[in-house]
Amino acid sequence: MTKINELDLSKHPCFNKKVKGQFGRVHLPVAPKCNIKCNYCNRKYDCVNESRPGVTSTVLNPDQSLEYMRRVLEKEPRISVAGIAGPGDPFANGEQTMETMRLLRQEFPDLILCLASNGMQIGPYIEELADIKVSHVTITVNAIDPEIGAGIYSWVRDGKIVYQGRQAAELLLARQLEAVKKLKENNITVKINSIIIPGINDHHIIEVAKKMQELGADLLNCMALFPTVDTVFGHIEQPGKEMVNGIRKAAEKHMPQMRHCTRCRADAVGLLDDDKTEEFRGCLSACAKLPAIPGKAPRPYVAVATMEGILVNQHLGEAVKFQIWEKKEDEYRLVEEREAPDQGGGLRRWVRLAKSLGDCQAVLVSGIGETPHEILSKTGIKPLTMNGFIEEGLKRVFEGQDVSVLQARKETCSKGGCSGQGGGCM
Fold first, then answer.
1. What is the DSSP letter of 92?
2. Cβ contacts of 187 within 8 Å, gap of 6 or more
3. Superfamily, domain 301-398
4. Domains of the chain: which residue ranges?
5. How far is CA 327 from the centre of its chain?
6. Using CA atoms, how far apart are residues 176 and 87, in angstroms rounded to an integer?
7. Peptide bond preceding 87: is omega within 30 degrees of 0, i.e. cis?
8. If DSSP codes are grouped into helix, strand and coil, which group holds residue 362?
9. pTM of the model
10. pLDDT for 127-169, tens place per residue?
11. Cα–Cα distance, 123 to 346 (Å, whole number)
């Protein structure tokens, strides 16, 4: 079987026009939630008669996606790429997205893995994406001028806070620019999608191209607006071929252009010029009805930050190793000790820790910074703060009880103040 680092990346039909009639792609609709509201988007999940981004006939969970992938490859072996492109944004559904990518990489090591995102929340996941060899990522960037962006997005949500207007556009742009830069630093091929919206940003796409070239992006896809009813831009006429071709020609002075995009649905499957989405709809629906896998326990352990092996008494940033515990019948058993990533390195340290504790459902600590708390949570690991005996904490975790009732240290670290940036406690 092909080794991951020997993948033939030229078999991606969206990035290589020459193979679009030889190799195909499947989009796995595992990401229903979105973190921004574009004025051209209306995500009707069950609209089977529309072929456009943001639309799917159903939504799958990671296990269902894996089974669907098996069935697709059995019927259509020319599929070389598995991607997630919605129907929302993959990283507004980070846990489901990453679990799907892990399952696919484990079972299909010769499959090209691909993602399409607005870039808002992809940042904390980029290093793990590189680790599991997600080789292609598309970021949709419609403007690099916040004034223009403010007219394209109704709102942007960051955690529980919703931003609007210029503030929303500035935040989204900052995240997008950082995402493209970081993706290239991790040797991931980057395609930029820019929606051409007449009267809004058609005069501005060339500036997007210049900035993306500066950041090292690999390909630019200038896509014509798809006017959709019940949206702010529903009244804007779709740009004609003359406008689109003119913009592509001008942008091509700065970046290679994709000219064969078919504006795929979030559940698209098949070759770009031999789409089989309708043919596979029954299979997709059947997989969506599959029950949860009985007895599956992907996270059977709990990690503990402890100095002597009796108490939970270390801040996450102070820990140089973690004890890994499991429950066997009515007893708690120490499985092993795992080294923590070296201090320093910023976000990379916490991403590496999340990967190291990937089989743990929770980590018990006496304190934790905001940044590692967010990263661990997004990867499916519950950071739980407490003080007291390890066994008492384990009992509450494994029995689904509230750990917060146990005494937790009030300070964020032993000497006051923790940046949460990976440097450890001073």
1. G
2. 130
3. Dinitrogenase iron-molybdenum cofactor biosynthesis domain (3.30.420.130)
4. 4-288, 301-398
5. 31
6. 19
7. yes
8. strand
9. 0.69
10. 999 988 999 999 999 999 999 999 999 999 998 899 999 999 9
11. 12
